[in-house]
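Hey Z.,

So I finally got round to the protoporphyrin IX containing FE thing we talked about over coffee. Here's the setup:
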Amino acid sequence: MTATTSFKSLAFVFVLGFGSVAPTTAVADDTPLAEQMDELSGSLKRLRRAESVDEKVELIKKAQEAVIKGLQYLPAGFEKIEDAKKKAVMTAGYKKLTGQSYVLLCELEEAVLAEDEAKYDEVYLKIKEIKKEGHQAYKAEED
Ligand code: HEM
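And the result:
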């Protein structure tokens, strides 16, 4: 291996490492909401390896439960919003997006039960999009 290729491999590993390690934040990684987000994320990750319909449905139910529990908290970043009207608007938006996430998880459950893989992929993509939207709008630091 030449010096150039080993440098390239090192850079590649570095980039990959950053992609997966960077998410933790000083602000919002230890809140009750973050705990539910971790539950949600863990259930969705396990879903990829699940094989039977029953196993998949169980994991989706766990994800749904985490979303519902998360609704009783507000994002950590909201504490810094002093303007009451702005906070009310942000709170309504947060609840709306959380509700939409729940609906998508119910659609995912329906797709699993119907064993409709195309629908499953379509809904899963929407869940990834809503995660991105939710984090861009309400997470205190970058994903
Ligand atoms: C649907 C898929 C989603 C997944 C898999 C997901 C996953 C995660 C993960 C892993 C964290 C970091 C938790 C930690 O640091 O320990 C997080 C944090 C966070 N997520 Fe999500 N998320 C999703 C959707 C959403 C949506 C839709 C919203 C907003 C409506 C949202 C708002 C937040 C906020 C605000 C935090 C920071 C925690 C806090 O402020 O207390 N997430 N999420």
